[in-house]
Amino acid sequence: MFVDLTINNVYPTFSFSSEEVEAYRTRKGDLLISLEEYLLDGRNILDAEKIQHSIFPQHDVDVFISHSHADEDEAIRLALSMENIGLTVFVDSCIWGNADELLRKIDDKFCVPQGWSHYSYNLRNRTTTNVHLILSAALQQMIMRSELFMFLGSENAINIDDYMSEEGRLSSPWIFSELMFAKSVKRSDRRIFRQGNESFEKMRSTSRAPGPGFSYPLPKLQHELSLQEFNSWLNKGISVEAGLAGRISGLTHLDTLYSKLGFSEDQLSEPRFKI
Q: How far apart are the first and last CA of the chain?
């Protein structure tokens, strides 16, 4: 990861229609989970690595968007806008529904003792803990492999009583975990393509059921912009076709954002593509 960025004052926009948002969600929600594929040697032992490889894209992305579940449509609209200018984007809610589906299948198979008609509390605690740890580790890998980490700091993500204060509070453990990791992860260089580098696939998106409420401190990222400022940069991008040339064009435009955030010309001098 090269840069972390909070986008403040997030509000509903209509840059893409609800039909386009739903098409994106449908396009990225086509994962078919086969529990049997994750069992080691046919035994009742689940392979964490196989689970991660199935649910998560196994390639680098340019932008990772962390957001409240209530802001999923806005995150998708931002993702669509950035994809239009050649960037690859990972919306973190892409995997929540897939993880929930996986957990339900595991619980149905392993957490109902013989003769019972309901889940065992102790067994289900164990499966939930393991699946969530697998999910957390995979999310951290996606953040590390992205170049730009973006957090949508809306009223939905930050508790309303703290939204206007210096000391914000979060209700989502996933956002808290992502922000803490983004603050501490080792910084990488900007992405440079050399002749022969090829391109990548895209992701999926579904939803997550609500849970009990919690409160977490809000980790402050290094850079902040308002949504208006971010959209001002984004709207200056050029729509491109999919492929390596479009990807390089998008990353070059990303450098103008980094310049806006205060990065020096020396830090951005290396070209995005080298022969």
A: 24
